[in-house]
Amino acid sequence: MINVIVELSKYIILTLMIVYTFHCFYTVRQSDEEDRNELLRQQLLLIFFIDFTAFLVLYLKTFNFKIVEFYAEMLLFFAAIQILYRLLYKKASILLLNNMCMLLSVGFIMLCRLDISSAQKQLLIAAGVSAIALVIPVMIRKMRFLRRLTWVYAGIGIILLAAVFALARTSYGAKLSLLGVQPSEAIKITFVFFMASFLSRDTSFKAIVQVTVVAALHVGILVLSKDLGSAVIFFVAYLVMVYVATRNVGYLALGIGGGSAAAVVAYHLFGHVRQRVSAWKDPMAVYQNEGYQIVQSLFAIGTGGWFGMGLYQGSPESIPVVKNDFVFSAICEELGGIFAICLILVCMSFFLMIVNIALRIINPFYKLIALGLGVEYAFQVFLTIGGATKFIPMTGVTLPLVSYGGSSLLCTILMLAIIQGLYILREDEDEEFEKRKQEAIQRLRAGETINRTRQI
Question: Which residues span the membrane (predicted)?
Fold first, then answer.
Protein backbone atom coordinates (compact mmCIF):
# COMPACT_ATOMS: atom_id res chain seq x y z
CA MET A 1 0.00 0.00 0.00
CA ILE A 2 2.81 2.39 0.89
CA ASN A 3 4.51 1.73 -2.45
CA VAL A 4 1.26 2.59 -4.26
CA ILE A 5 1.02 5.88 -2.33
CA VAL A 6 4.66 6.70 -3.18
CA GLU A 7 4.07 5.97 -6.85
CA LEU A 8 0.91 8.08 -7.00
CA SER A 9 2.47 10.89 -4.98
CA LYS A 10 5.07 11.74 -7.62
CA TYR A 11 2.36 12.34 -10.21
CA ILE A 12 0.27 14.39 -7.75
CA ILE A 13 3.28 16.53 -6.78
CA LEU A 14 4.25 16.95 -10.43
CA THR A 15 0.74 18.03 -11.46
CA LEU A 16 0.53 20.55 -8.61
CA MET A 17 3.97 21.93 -9.52
CA ILE A 18 2.99 22.37 -13.18
CA VAL A 19 -0.16 24.28 -12.16
CA TYR A 20 1.87 26.45 -9.75
CA THR A 21 4.41 27.27 -12.46
CA PHE A 22 1.61 28.27 -14.83
CA HIS A 23 0.22 30.57 -12.11
CA CYS A 24 3.63 32.28 -11.75
CA PHE A 25 3.44 33.65 -15.29
CA TYR A 26 -0.33 33.95 -15.67
CA THR A 27 -0.74 35.99 -12.47
CA VAL A 28 1.58 38.73 -13.77
CA ARG A 29 -0.66 39.21 -16.82
CA GLN A 30 -3.81 39.76 -14.74
CA SER A 31 -4.81 43.42 -14.66
CA ASP A 32 -7.84 42.89 -12.41
CA GLU A 33 -6.74 43.00 -8.77
CA GLU A 34 -9.46 40.66 -7.52
CA ASP A 35 -8.56 37.97 -10.10
CA ARG A 36 -4.88 38.34 -9.27
CA ASN A 37 -5.52 37.94 -5.54
CA GLU A 38 -7.55 34.80 -6.22
CA LEU A 39 -4.67 33.31 -8.21
CA LEU A 40 -2.27 34.16 -5.39
CA ARG A 41 -4.54 32.38 -2.89
CA GLN A 42 -4.61 29.37 -5.19
CA GLN A 43 -0.81 29.37 -5.21
CA LEU A 44 -0.78 29.06 -1.43
CA LEU A 45 -3.13 26.09 -1.63
CA LEU A 46 -0.88 24.45 -4.22
CA ILE A 47 2.15 24.89 -1.95
CA PHE A 48 0.19 23.40 0.95
CA PHE A 49 -0.89 20.31 -1.00
CA ILE A 50 2.62 19.75 -2.43
CA ASP A 51 4.06 19.88 1.10
CA PHE A 52 1.32 17.67 2.54
CA THR A 53 1.77 15.00 -0.14
CA ALA A 54 5.55 15.00 0.07
CA PHE A 55 5.78 14.89 3.86
CA LEU A 56 3.12 12.18 4.02
CA VAL A 57 5.35 10.01 1.83
CA LEU A 58 8.46 10.91 3.84
CA TYR A 59 6.72 9.82 7.04
CA LEU A 60 5.27 6.61 5.58
CA LYS A 61 8.69 5.56 4.29
CA THR A 62 10.48 6.18 7.60
CA PHE A 63 7.86 6.39 10.38
CA ASN A 64 10.12 9.02 11.91
CA PHE A 65 7.95 11.33 14.04
CA LYS A 66 10.55 14.09 13.69
CA ILE A 67 9.29 14.54 10.13
CA VAL A 68 5.77 15.25 11.43
CA GLU A 69 7.17 17.75 13.93
CA PHE A 70 9.21 19.42 11.22
CA TYR A 71 6.17 19.61 8.93
CA ALA A 72 4.11 21.34 11.62
CA GLU A 73 6.93 23.81 12.35
CA MET A 74 7.36 24.52 8.65
CA LEU A 75 3.64 25.23 8.20
CA LEU A 76 3.73 27.57 11.20
CA PHE A 77 6.69 29.41 9.69
CA PHE A 78 5.01 29.84 6.29
CA ALA A 79 1.74 30.97 7.90
CA ALA A 80 3.57 33.52 10.08
CA ILE A 81 5.57 35.00 7.20
CA GLN A 82 2.52 35.26 4.95
CA ILE A 83 0.37 36.90 7.63
CA LEU A 84 3.05 39.32 8.84
CA TYR A 85 3.89 40.57 5.34
CA ARG A 86 0.22 41.18 4.62
CA LEU A 87 -0.25 43.03 7.91
CA LEU A 88 2.93 45.11 7.80
CA TYR A 89 3.22 45.84 4.09
CA LYS A 90 -0.05 46.30 2.22
CA LYS A 91 1.84 46.99 -1.02
CA ALA A 92 4.24 44.02 -0.84
CA SER A 93 4.54 41.63 -3.78
CA ILE A 94 2.69 38.48 -2.68
CA LEU A 95 3.82 36.64 -5.82
CA LEU A 96 7.45 37.22 -4.83
CA LEU A 97 6.62 35.98 -1.33
CA ASN A 98 4.82 32.88 -2.65
CA ASN A 99 7.75 31.99 -4.90
CA MET A 100 10.11 32.28 -1.94
CA CYS A 101 7.88 29.90 0.07
CA MET A 102 7.70 27.46 -2.85
CA LEU A 103 11.47 27.28 -3.30
CA LEU A 104 11.96 26.93 0.45
CA SER A 105 9.36 24.11 0.43
CA VAL A 106 11.23 22.19 -2.26
CA GLY A 107 14.45 22.63 -0.30
CA PHE A 108 12.86 21.46 2.96
CA ILE A 109 11.37 18.39 1.26
CA MET A 110 14.71 17.30 -0.20
CA LEU A 111 16.64 18.08 2.98
CA CYS A 112 14.19 16.01 5.06
CA ARG A 113 14.68 13.22 2.56
CA LEU A 114 18.47 13.47 2.78
CA ASP A 115 19.14 14.54 6.39
CA ILE A 116 16.42 15.62 8.84
CA SER A 117 18.90 17.39 11.15
CA SER A 118 20.09 19.60 8.27
CA ALA A 119 16.46 20.42 7.44
CA GLN A 120 15.84 21.45 11.06
CA LYS A 121 18.87 23.75 11.04
CA GLN A 122 17.78 25.23 7.71
CA LEU A 123 14.28 25.95 9.04
CA LEU A 124 15.65 27.57 12.18
CA ILE A 125 17.93 29.83 10.14
CA ALA A 126 15.10 30.69 7.73
CA ALA A 127 12.78 31.65 10.61
CA GLY A 128 15.39 33.78 12.35
CA VAL A 129 16.46 35.59 9.19
CA SER A 130 12.87 36.15 8.06
CA ALA A 131 12.11 37.85 11.38
CA ILE A 132 15.04 40.21 10.80
CA ALA A 133 14.11 40.66 7.14
CA LEU A 134 10.67 41.99 8.07
CA VAL A 135 12.25 45.36 8.96
CA ILE A 136 14.28 45.61 5.73
CA PRO A 137 11.50 47.00 3.46
CA VAL A 138 10.75 49.87 5.84
CA MET A 139 14.48 50.59 6.13
CA ILE A 140 14.74 50.80 2.33
CA ARG A 141 11.84 53.29 2.27
CA LYS A 142 13.06 55.47 5.16
CA MET A 143 16.88 55.36 5.10
CA ARG A 144 17.58 57.64 2.15
CA PHE A 145 21.20 58.09 3.22
CA LEU A 146 22.08 54.56 2.02
CA ARG A 147 23.14 55.90 -1.37
CA ARG A 148 25.84 58.06 0.27
CA LEU A 149 27.72 55.15 1.90
CA THR A 150 29.64 54.30 -1.28
CA TRP A 151 33.08 53.69 0.16
CA VAL A 152 31.69 52.08 3.32
CA TYR A 153 30.24 49.28 1.15
CA ALA A 154 33.56 48.91 -0.71
CA GLY A 155 35.59 48.85 2.51
CA ILE A 156 33.38 46.25 4.18
CA GLY A 157 33.59 43.96 1.15
CA ILE A 158 37.34 44.13 0.66
CA ILE A 159 38.19 43.80 4.38
CA LEU A 160 35.94 40.77 4.90
CA LEU A 161 37.18 39.00 1.77
CA ALA A 162 40.79 39.71 2.74
CA ALA A 163 40.11 38.28 6.22
CA VAL A 164 38.77 35.07 4.67
CA PHE A 165 41.80 34.81 2.38
CA ALA A 166 44.21 35.31 5.28
CA LEU A 167 42.49 33.37 8.07
CA ALA A 168 40.10 30.77 6.62
CA ARG A 169 40.97 27.11 6.23
CA THR A 170 40.80 25.42 2.84
CA SER A 171 37.64 23.35 2.34
CA TYR A 172 36.95 21.41 -0.88
CA GLY A 173 39.90 23.18 -2.48
CA ALA A 174 38.82 26.75 -1.63
CA LYS A 175 38.81 29.20 1.27
CA LEU A 176 35.12 29.86 1.82
CA SER A 177 34.12 30.39 5.45
CA LEU A 178 35.30 32.16 8.55
CA LEU A 179 33.91 31.08 11.96
CA GLY A 180 31.28 29.01 10.17
CA VAL A 181 30.04 31.94 8.06
CA GLN A 182 30.67 32.50 4.36
CA PRO A 183 31.22 36.29 4.06
CA SER A 184 31.15 36.27 0.25
CA GLU A 185 27.38 35.70 0.43
CA ALA A 186 26.81 38.90 2.43
CA ILE A 187 29.29 40.83 0.31
CA LYS A 188 27.14 40.14 -2.76
CA ILE A 189 24.72 42.66 -1.27
CA THR A 190 27.30 45.28 -0.24
CA PHE A 191 28.99 44.97 -3.64
CA VAL A 192 25.74 45.74 -5.48
CA PHE A 193 25.07 48.69 -3.15
CA PHE A 194 28.57 50.04 -3.85
CA MET A 195 28.15 49.74 -7.61
CA ALA A 196 24.67 51.30 -7.53
CA SER A 197 25.76 54.15 -5.27
CA PHE A 198 28.75 55.03 -7.46
CA LEU A 199 27.18 54.60 -10.88
CA SER A 200 23.93 56.40 -10.00
CA ARG A 201 25.98 59.59 -9.43
CA ASP A 202 28.71 59.43 -12.06
CA THR A 203 29.25 57.38 -15.22
CA SER A 204 32.28 59.21 -16.59
CA PHE A 205 35.36 57.30 -17.76
CA LYS A 206 37.18 58.19 -14.53
CA ALA A 207 34.29 56.82 -12.46
CA ILE A 208 34.23 53.59 -14.47
CA VAL A 209 37.96 53.13 -13.85
CA GLN A 210 37.47 53.61 -10.09
CA VAL A 211 34.55 51.17 -10.02
CA THR A 212 36.58 48.66 -12.03
CA VAL A 213 39.50 48.83 -9.61
CA VAL A 214 37.25 48.12 -6.61
CA ALA A 215 35.44 45.32 -8.47
CA ALA A 216 38.81 43.84 -9.51
CA LEU A 217 39.90 43.79 -5.86
CA HIS A 218 36.75 41.87 -4.88
CA VAL A 219 37.07 39.38 -7.73
CA GLY A 220 40.86 39.06 -7.36
CA ILE A 221 40.68 38.16 -3.67
CA LEU A 222 37.97 35.59 -4.41
CA VAL A 223 40.10 34.05 -7.17
CA LEU A 224 43.11 33.85 -4.84
CA SER A 225 40.84 32.19 -2.27
CA LYS A 226 39.78 29.80 -5.09
CA ASP A 227 36.13 30.72 -4.55
CA LEU A 228 35.61 30.80 -8.30
CA GLY A 229 31.81 30.57 -8.29
CA SER A 230 31.43 33.74 -6.23
CA ALA A 231 34.13 35.47 -8.31
CA VAL A 232 32.17 34.82 -11.51
CA ILE A 233 28.91 36.06 -9.93
CA PHE A 234 30.58 39.30 -8.80
CA PHE A 235 32.12 39.81 -12.22
CA VAL A 236 28.86 39.30 -14.11
CA ALA A 237 27.00 41.66 -11.75
CA TYR A 238 29.72 44.30 -12.30
CA LEU A 239 29.56 43.88 -16.06
CA VAL A 240 25.77 44.16 -16.31
CA MET A 241 25.50 47.12 -13.94
CA VAL A 242 28.21 49.08 -15.75
CA TYR A 243 26.58 48.42 -19.11
CA VAL A 244 23.10 49.40 -17.91
CA ALA A 245 24.38 52.55 -16.17
CA THR A 246 26.47 53.74 -19.15
CA ARG A 247 24.75 52.03 -22.11
CA ASN A 248 28.22 51.77 -23.61
CA VAL A 249 28.70 48.57 -25.63
CA GLY A 250 32.45 49.15 -25.57
CA TYR A 251 32.62 48.61 -21.82
CA LEU A 252 30.64 45.39 -22.22
CA ALA A 253 32.97 44.14 -24.95
CA LEU A 254 36.08 45.01 -22.92
CA GLY A 255 34.62 43.29 -19.87
CA ILE A 256 33.82 40.09 -21.75
CA GLY A 257 37.27 40.08 -23.36
CA GLY A 258 39.01 40.74 -20.05
CA GLY A 259 36.96 38.07 -18.30
CA SER A 260 37.77 35.51 -20.98
CA ALA A 261 41.49 36.30 -20.72
CA ALA A 262 41.33 36.05 -16.91
CA ALA A 263 39.65 32.64 -17.19
CA VAL A 264 42.49 31.35 -19.37
CA VAL A 265 45.09 32.72 -16.93
CA ALA A 266 43.24 31.12 -13.97
CA TYR A 267 43.20 27.79 -15.81
CA HIS A 268 46.99 27.81 -16.17
CA LEU A 269 47.70 29.17 -12.68
CA PHE A 270 45.41 27.05 -10.51
CA GLY A 271 45.34 23.26 -10.48
CA HIS A 272 41.93 23.46 -8.79
CA VAL A 273 40.53 25.07 -11.95
CA ARG A 274 42.19 22.52 -14.24
CA GLN A 275 40.68 19.66 -12.24
CA ARG A 276 37.16 21.04 -12.61
CA VAL A 277 37.61 21.67 -16.32
CA SER A 278 38.98 18.15 -16.75
CA ALA A 279 35.97 16.71 -14.89
CA TRP A 280 33.66 18.76 -17.11
CA LYS A 281 35.29 17.76 -20.41
CA ASP A 282 35.34 14.01 -19.78
CA PRO A 283 34.19 12.99 -16.29
CA MET A 284 34.36 9.27 -17.08
CA ALA A 285 38.07 9.56 -17.82
CA VAL A 286 38.68 10.77 -14.26
CA TYR A 287 35.78 8.92 -12.65
CA GLN A 288 37.77 7.67 -9.64
CA ASN A 289 38.91 11.19 -8.70
CA GLU A 290 37.56 14.63 -9.65
CA GLY A 291 35.01 13.22 -12.11
CA TYR A 292 33.19 11.05 -9.55
CA GLN A 293 30.84 13.80 -8.32
CA ILE A 294 29.62 14.91 -11.75
CA VAL A 295 29.25 11.32 -13.00
CA GLN A 296 27.06 10.44 -10.00
CA SER A 297 25.05 13.60 -10.67
CA LEU A 298 24.47 12.64 -14.30
CA PHE A 299 23.52 9.09 -13.28
CA ALA A 300 20.95 10.52 -10.85
CA ILE A 301 19.46 12.86 -13.46
CA GLY A 302 19.30 10.09 -16.05
CA THR A 303 17.80 7.59 -13.62
CA GLY A 304 14.99 9.95 -12.66
CA GLY A 305 13.78 10.46 -16.22
CA TRP A 306 10.82 12.77 -16.82
CA PHE A 307 8.66 11.67 -13.87
CA GLY A 308 11.21 10.71 -11.22
CA MET A 309 11.68 7.62 -9.11
CA GLY A 310 9.57 8.92 -6.23
CA LEU A 311 10.71 10.07 -2.78
CA TYR A 312 12.99 7.50 -1.11
CA GLN A 313 13.04 5.44 -4.32
CA GLY A 314 16.37 6.76 -5.60
CA SER A 315 19.87 6.99 -4.13
CA PRO A 316 20.84 10.70 -4.20
CA GLU A 317 23.01 10.22 -1.11
CA SER A 318 25.60 8.57 -3.38
CA ILE A 319 26.44 12.04 -4.77
CA PRO A 320 29.11 13.77 -2.64
CA VAL A 321 27.96 17.08 -1.07
CA VAL A 322 24.49 16.45 -2.53
CA LYS A 323 22.55 18.70 -0.14
CA ASN A 324 24.82 21.68 -0.87
CA ASP A 325 26.02 21.68 -4.49
CA PHE A 326 24.00 18.90 -6.15
CA VAL A 327 20.51 19.17 -4.67
CA PHE A 328 19.20 19.80 -8.20
CA SER A 329 20.40 16.33 -9.21
CA ALA A 330 18.57 14.80 -6.23
CA ILE A 331 15.41 16.64 -7.27
CA CYS A 332 15.73 15.30 -10.82
CA GLU A 333 16.21 11.73 -9.60
CA GLU A 334 13.29 11.51 -7.19
CA LEU A 335 10.84 14.20 -8.38
CA GLY A 336 11.61 14.02 -12.10
CA GLY A 337 12.91 16.09 -14.98
CA ILE A 338 9.56 17.83 -15.58
CA PHE A 339 9.46 18.92 -11.95
CA ALA A 340 13.05 20.20 -12.28
CA ILE A 341 12.12 22.20 -15.41
CA CYS A 342 9.19 23.73 -13.51
CA LEU A 343 11.60 24.63 -10.71
CA ILE A 344 13.84 26.41 -13.23
CA LEU A 345 10.81 28.28 -14.58
CA VAL A 346 9.85 29.41 -11.06
CA CYS A 347 13.40 30.72 -10.61
CA MET A 348 13.08 32.45 -13.99
CA SER A 349 9.79 34.00 -12.87
CA PHE A 350 11.62 35.29 -9.79
CA PHE A 351 14.26 36.96 -11.97
CA LEU A 352 11.76 38.44 -14.42
CA MET A 353 9.79 39.97 -11.56
CA ILE A 354 12.94 41.60 -10.19
CA VAL A 355 13.85 42.94 -13.65
CA ASN A 356 10.32 44.31 -14.03
CA ILE A 357 10.67 46.10 -10.69
CA ALA A 358 14.02 47.55 -11.81
CA LEU A 359 12.60 48.79 -15.11
CA ARG A 360 9.71 50.61 -13.42
CA ILE A 361 11.70 52.31 -10.64
CA ILE A 362 12.54 55.94 -11.46
CA ASN A 363 15.38 56.49 -8.96
CA PRO A 364 18.62 55.26 -10.64
CA PHE A 365 20.19 54.13 -7.33
CA TYR A 366 17.31 51.80 -6.49
CA LYS A 367 16.96 50.74 -10.13
CA LEU A 368 20.58 49.55 -10.21
CA ILE A 369 20.24 47.77 -6.86
CA ALA A 370 17.24 45.76 -8.10
CA LEU A 371 19.02 44.90 -11.33
CA GLY A 372 22.28 43.92 -9.62
CA LEU A 373 20.61 41.68 -7.04
CA GLY A 374 18.47 40.08 -9.76
CA VAL A 375 21.51 39.33 -11.91
CA GLU A 376 23.38 37.79 -8.96
CA TYR A 377 20.40 35.57 -8.15
CA ALA A 378 19.84 34.45 -11.74
CA PHE A 379 23.50 33.76 -12.44
CA GLN A 380 23.90 31.75 -9.23
CA VAL A 381 20.95 29.58 -10.31
CA PHE A 382 22.58 29.18 -13.74
CA LEU A 383 25.95 28.18 -12.24
CA THR A 384 24.43 25.62 -9.88
CA ILE A 385 22.14 23.94 -12.40
CA GLY A 386 24.68 24.25 -15.22
CA GLY A 387 27.34 22.56 -13.09
CA ALA A 388 25.06 19.74 -11.96
CA THR A 389 23.99 18.97 -15.55
CA LYS A 390 27.54 19.26 -16.99
CA PHE A 391 26.54 22.26 -19.08
CA ILE A 392 29.44 24.22 -17.53
CA PRO A 393 32.27 23.25 -15.14
CA MET A 394 31.12 22.93 -11.53
CA THR A 395 31.74 26.11 -9.51
CA GLY A 396 30.62 24.99 -6.06
CA VAL A 397 27.78 27.46 -5.44
CA THR A 398 24.42 26.60 -3.90
CA LEU A 399 20.93 26.77 -5.41
CA PRO A 400 19.36 29.79 -3.62
CA LEU A 401 16.67 28.87 -1.03
CA VAL A 402 16.81 25.19 -2.04
CA SER A 403 20.30 23.95 -1.17
CA TYR A 404 21.52 23.51 2.39
CA GLY A 405 23.67 26.41 3.51
CA GLY A 406 23.09 28.94 6.27
CA SER A 407 25.04 31.83 4.77
CA SER A 408 23.44 31.43 1.35
CA LEU A 409 19.93 31.15 2.82
CA LEU A 410 20.46 34.14 5.11
CA CYS A 411 21.69 36.44 2.37
CA THR A 412 19.10 35.31 -0.19
CA ILE A 413 16.21 36.05 2.19
CA LEU A 414 17.73 39.46 3.01
CA MET A 415 18.17 40.07 -0.71
CA LEU A 416 14.50 39.31 -1.34
CA ALA A 417 13.49 41.59 1.54
CA ILE A 418 15.43 44.39 -0.16
CA ILE A 419 13.58 43.60 -3.40
CA GLN A 420 10.29 43.80 -1.50
CA GLY A 421 11.32 47.22 -0.21
CA LEU A 422 12.11 48.33 -3.77
CA TYR A 423 8.76 46.96 -4.97
CA ILE A 424 6.98 49.02 -2.32
CA LEU A 425 9.03 52.07 -3.35
CA ARG A 426 7.91 51.52 -6.92
CA GLU A 427 4.28 51.39 -5.79
CA ASP A 428 4.84 54.64 -3.90
CA GLU A 429 6.26 56.23 -7.06
CA ASP A 430 3.24 55.05 -9.08
CA GLU A 431 0.85 56.51 -6.49
CA GLU A 432 2.74 59.82 -6.46
CA PHE A 433 2.68 59.97 -10.26
CA GLU A 434 -1.06 59.23 -10.34
CA LYS A 435 -1.69 61.87 -7.65
CA ARG A 436 0.21 64.52 -9.62
CA LYS A 437 -1.61 63.51 -12.79
CA GLN A 438 -5.01 63.96 -11.10
CA GLU A 439 -3.94 67.31 -9.65
CA ALA A 440 -2.83 68.47 -13.11
CA ILE A 441 -6.16 67.39 -14.61
CA GLN A 442 -8.08 69.24 -11.88
CA ARG A 443 -6.01 72.40 -12.45
CA LEU A 444 -6.63 72.14 -16.18
CA ARG A 445 -10.38 71.75 -15.67
CA ALA A 446 -10.43 74.63 -13.20
CA GLY A 447 -8.61 76.82 -15.75
CA GLU A 448 -11.13 75.89 -18.46
CA THR A 449 -14.03 76.75 -16.11
CA ILE A 450 -12.53 80.19 -15.36
CA ASN A 451 -12.01 80.91 -19.07
CA ARG A 452 -15.63 79.99 -19.86
CA THR A 453 -16.86 82.22 -17.03
CA ARG A 454 -14.83 85.16 -18.39
CA GLN A 455 -16.20 84.60 -21.88
CA ILE A 456 -19.74 84.70 -20.55
Answer: 12-28, 40-60, 67-88, 94-111, 123-140, 152-169, 205-223, 228-245, 251-270, 291-315, 335-359, 368-389, 401-425
